[in-house]
Amino acid sequence: MSSVHIPEVRICFVGDSFVNGTGDQECLGWTGRTCANANKKGYDITYYNLGIRRDTSTDISKRWLQEVSLRLPKEYDGRVVFSFGLNDTTLENGKTRVDLADSIKNAREILSEAQKLYPVLMVGPAPYAEQKDSQRRQRTIDLSNQYASLCQELNVPYLDIFPILEKSNIWINEARANDSVHPRAGGYAESDFSR
Fold it and tell me: How far apart are CA 86 and CA 126, in angstroms?
């Protein structure tokens, strides 16, 4: 009886603190949980978490290619999942860290280049837990909608998690109880869409 060979898949998750799993006392975040579930389903996953706290789309545009290239040599089945944007919408000194036009330009450059090299998926920004900040909420929704349109244009799959997680009591309550931004393990388990 011959054993079935399961191909090895390498995935780079590139983004910000939500990709990093900041706040998760189990140190898995949604990326670790997604890959653990894929392994349980029989996939041979090697995953690389390339999430950096406070990174904007501008920061990611400068680093992603080198970091991903080192981890996804051509002889392997490599994939890239991008998720960023919430830090772009943060107000500092009276203006957003990255304006909307530049966020879209950065995303276009990143995704256009990445899809020439690898299968790519984009995950939209997560909601900010402090819902009293309606302007921040609207900026995030606007950015997510722009990312969705861009991904449709580029034929890149896009997962808009904002409306799902905004309705998640676990995500919102854990984030509020933590640092008003990042949930704990239960919130990240809510955002594991591989289940």
Answer: 7
